[in-house]
Specification:
The complex is a heterodimer of chains A (158) and B (356).
Chain A (H helix, E strand, L loop, with lengths): L11 H19 L7 H23 L4 H14 L7 H12 L12 H10 L8 H29 L2
Helix pairs in contact in A: 1-2, 1-6, 2-3
Chain B lengths: L4 H15 L4 H16 L9 H5 L3 H9 L14 H7 L2 H16 L1 H7 L6 H16 L16 H16 L3 H7 L24 H23 L9 H29 L7 H7 L24 H17 L6 H7 L12 H14 L1
Helix pairs in contact in B: 1-8, 2-6, 4-7, 6-8, 7-9, 8-9, 9-10, 12-15
Classes of the chains: A mainly alpha (158), B mainly alpha (356).
Chain lengths: 158, 356
C-alpha cells in the first residue's frame, strides 16, 4: 500500500508523466469505444503523438531553445487557420537568428551538423556550440519520454 | 626550423638589446650552464624541466635563482649524442642558440622568479614566445615543460613581463587574454595560449570555441551509448544523429501503440464507471500494490463485453503491418483486465508513478 519509492515531484519525468496522462485521458474521453477503424486509430495516434510532444515541451517550458521552438511550432500548427501574428513570428525569428554564427567552425563537420539541425526542433538558427547543448538536453528528454510511454503502454496492454 | 624569419629577427634584436643589460660575467656563466644543461642527457620521463635537469625540483629552481652557482656543474656530464636525438635545439644552436638556451628555462624560470624582475628572467620570458614561434616542431620534452599545472600562472606572469619588456604591438593582444582553465564558468572566456600556438585574439577565440565544442562533444559521447569507442567527431555525430532518430521513431511507435490500445480501454466515465467497476487487475498486476479504494470487481458481464470487443478488434489487427503489432497480439488478453473509470485512471497514474 505504501509507496516506498516516491518520485521526485519536480523532476522532468514526473512533470511529463502527469501532463501526458492528463492529455491521454482527454483524448480517450473524446472518442467512443467502438471506433477501432484504422483511420480512427491513426487520428488518435496523431493526437497522442502531439500530446506527447506538447507535454514534454511544456514540462521544459522555455528553458531550452528546442522546447520553445517546439511549442511555437505546435501553436502555429493549431492556429493554422487563423492569421498568424507576423510581428511575433518576426521577433521570434530575429531573436533566434541573431545567435547564428557562420556555419563552419573550421573543424569541418558541416554535413552532420545540418542533419542534426533538422532533427532537433529549432536547430536551424543555432550555432554549433548551442546546438550540441540543445541536442544533449533533447536526447535526455526523449529518453525520458520513451521510458514513460513504454511503461504506460505496457501497463495498459498487460 | 626557421619558419618565421621575421620573428627570429626581432627576437635576435631583442636579445641583443637585452643582452646588454646582463652583466658580462653573469651571462658568461649562465650560458655555460645553460649550454651544459641543453646537452645534458634527457631522461625517459622528461616530463618536466626538473626531470630534464635530472635534479630534484628544489635544486633545479635554486639553480635558476642563482645563475652564478656552480651546482649545475655537479650535474651529470653531458652526453651530446643522447641529446641530439630528442632535442632539436642543438641542431639549431648555431642560429638560435641564445634563444634556445633561454627558452629551456622558460617554465621553471617563471616559477622561480615570480617576484624577481631580473633582466635574465625577463630575457627568458621574452625569448620564450619568440623561440616558441620559431620552432614550430615542438620537442616532446619541451612541450611538457609548459603543460604542468603551475604553468598557467607562469604564463600570466610571463606575458605580463613580456609586455613590460617588449612594449611591442603584441602587448595589447596578449594583455587582453589571460590564462584560465575554466572557460565555462567565467563571465567571459579566458583562454590559455599554449606553447607553440599563436597568441592573437582571433585564434585564441577560435581555440576557446573549439574547446567548448569538444567538451560538449565529450558529454554527448557519454550520453549516447556506444559512442565512447568511436573516435573522430564526424562519426560520433553520425551516431548521435542515429540515436536521436531512433528515439524519435520509438516515440512514434509508442504513441501508435497507445492509440491502438485505446479503443479497448474505454475511458467513458458515464457508461463504465457508474455501471460497473473496472478493477479486473487483481490477477494481472501482481507486482503492484492495489489501492484499497478501488471498488470491487463485479464484472463477469463486464468481461464478456470486453471479450466481444476484443474478438472484433482482433480482426482489425492485421491492418497495421508494423512492429507494434508484435507487442500487442499477445497482450490482447489484457482486455479482460482493463479498468475504465476516471477513478482507475488516477489510480493507474499513481501506480505508474510507483513503477516509474
Amino acid at each position: 500500500m505504501n509507496n516506498p519509492h516516491h518520485m521526485n515531484p519536480r523532476s522532468l519525468k514526473s512533470r511529463f508523466t502527469t501532463r501526458f496522462l492528463r492529455a491521454l485521458t482527454k483524448i480517450r474521453a473524446q472518442k467512443p469505444i467502438s471506433s477501432s477503424s484504422p483511420t480512427e486509430i491513426f487520428r488518435r495516434y496523431r493526437k497522442i503523438k502531439v500530446a506527447a510532444d506538447k507535454s514534454m515541451a511544456y514540462s521544459v517550458r522555455s528553458r531550452k531553445t528546442w522546447s520553445r521552438a517546439m511549442l511555437w511550432k505546435l501553436r502555429s500548427r493549431s492556429h493554422r487557420r487563423r492569421p498568424v501574428k507576423t510581428k511575433f513570428r518576426q521577433s521570434v525569428m530575429k531573436n533566434t537568428k541573431t545567435t547564428t554564427t557562420t556555419g563552419e567552425d573550421g573543424v569541418g563537420f558541416g554535413v552532420e551538423a545540418s542533419e542534426l539541425r533538422e532533427l532537433v526542433p529549432g536547430g536551424e538558427a543555432m550555432d554549433l556550440c548551442n546546438l550540441l547543448d540543445e541536442t544533449a538536453h533533447y536526447i535526455k528528454c526523449l529518453t525520458t519520454q520513451v521510458q514513460v510511454m513504454k511503461k504506460i503502454a505496457d501497463f495498459y496492454s498487460l | 626550423m626557421e619558419s618565421n624569419p621575421g620573428t627570429t629577427e626581432t627576437r635576435s634584436n631583442l636579445t641583443a638589446s637585452d643582452g646588454g643589460q646582463v652583466t658580462a660575467f653573469e651571462s658568461l656563466q649562465f650560458t655555460d650552464e645553460i649550454h651544459r644543461l641543453i646537452l645534458a642527457p634527457t631522461t625517459i620521463n622528461a616530463s618536466s624541466f626538473t626531470a630534464l635537469v635530472e635534479l630534484p625540483p628544489p635544486q633545479a629552481v635554486e639553480l635558476l635563482h642563482s645563475p652564478d652557482s656552480t651546482k649545475f656543474i655537479a650535474a651529470k656530464p653531458p652526453n651530446v649524442e643522447d641529446f641530439k636525438g630528442s632535442f632539436r635545439f642543438p641542431s639549431n644552436t648555431s642560429l638560435i642558440e641564445p634563444d634556445a638556451r633561454f627558452s629551456v628555462f622558460s617554465g621553471e624560470a617563471n616559477n622561480g622568479n615570480e617576484n624577481r624582475d631580473s633582466p635574465v628572467s625577463k630575457i627568458l620570458n621574452s625569448n620564450l614566445e619568440k623561440a616558441v614561434k620559431s620552432e614550430p616542431a615542438e620537442t616532446e620534452s619541451a612541450q611538457p615543460l609548459v603543460s604542468d599545472p603551475p604553468v598557467e600562472k607562469r604564463r600570466i606572469k610571463r606575458k605580463g613581463r613580456e609586455n613590460k619588456v617588449k612594449g611591442s604591438t603584441k602587448k595589447s593582444k596578449t594583455a587582453v587574454n589571460e590564462s584560465s582553465e575554466d572557460a565555462e564558468k567565467l563571465p567571459y572566456v579566458h583562454v590559455r595560449a599554449r606553447r607553440g600556438q599563436a597568441t592573437d585574439s582571433h585564434s585564441l577565440a577560435e581555440r576557446a570555441r573549439r574547446e567548448k565544442i569538444n567538451a560538449r562533444m565529450k558529454f554527448l559521447q557519454e550520453l549516447v551509448p556506444g559512442c565512447n569507442k568511436i573516435s573522430g567527431t564526424a562519426l560520433v555525430l553520425d551516431e548521435i544523429i542515429n540515436h536521436v532518430q531512433s528515439l524519435q521513431r520509438q516515440v512514434e511507435f509508442l504513441s501508435m501503440r497507445l492509440a491502438a490500445v485505446n479503443p479497448r480501454i474505454d475511458f467513458n466515465l458515464d457508461s463504465v464507471f457508474t455501471s460497473e467497476s473496472g478493477s479486473l487487475m487483481d490477477s494481472n498486476f501482481p507486482g503492484l500494490v492495489m489501492p484499497v479504494m478501488w471498488p470491487e470487481v463485479q464484472g463477469d458481464g463486464h468481461r464478456q463485453q470486453y471479450q466481444h470487443q476484443w474478438n472484433s478488434d482482433a480482426l482489425q489487427q492485421p491492418v497495421w503491418g508494423r512492429e507494434v503489432h508484435n507487442n500487442y497480439i499477445t497482450p490482447e488478453k489484457s482486455l479482460l483486465t482493463y479498468d475504465s473509470s476516471a477513478n482507475s485512471v488516477t489510480l493507474q497514474a499513481n501506480q505508474l508513478k510507483m513503477e516509474l
